[in-house]
Specification:
By secondary structure, this protein is α+β, with helices and mostly antiparallel strands. Helices cover 25% and strands 48% of the residues.
Length: 143
């Protein structure tokens, strides 16, 4: 398993940051490893909301479906995905710094399958860089 964790301070109110990130269709705007993202249904975002996300992985595009499995407004969103290569859990925490700023902590856990189990541990540095770039992109997008 690979675990990564990154924290960034965003100069926007917590409700605004949470709403933007919890709508995971925005991930393609701030994560450079994501080439496309869209919501798969209408209605309010919450537990059960799903998103089609296409990432680049090993030089190839990999389509994934992320589902929100925990949703605590302005506090926490957890998204899970399953593919033939790995299972992933993204846990995103939000805490107010003050009325105009938010601390976002992104954690991701990846459990590799099949032949990927053999090389998965060797990818820790790569996944750490990917997570850092995503959080840098969120900070650049939102401030």
């Amino acid at each position: 398993m690979i675990h990564i964790e990154e924290t960034r301070d965003i100069n926007r109110p917590i409700d605004e940051v949470f709403a933007y990130v919890a709508d995971f269709s925005t991930v393609s705007h701030w994560d450079p490893g994501v080439v496309a993202a869209s919501r798969l249904e209408d209605g309010e975002i919450g537990v059960g909301s799903t998103f089609a996300v296409t990432v680049t992985f090993g030089g190839r595009e990999l389509p994934l479906v992320y589902e929100i499995t925990r949703y605590e407004p302005s506090s926490l969103v957890v998204l899970e995905t399953t593919s033939s290569r790995f299972d992933g859990v993204d846990t995103i925490h939000f805490e107010p710094i003050d009325e105009a700023a938010t601390r976002v902590t992104y954690e991701a856990d990846f459990v590799f399958k099949g032949f990927m189990r053999l090389i998965g541990p060797l990818l820790t540095r790569t996944f750490t860089r990917i997570g850092a770039k995503a959080m840098d992109g969120l900070k650049a997008t939102l401030g």
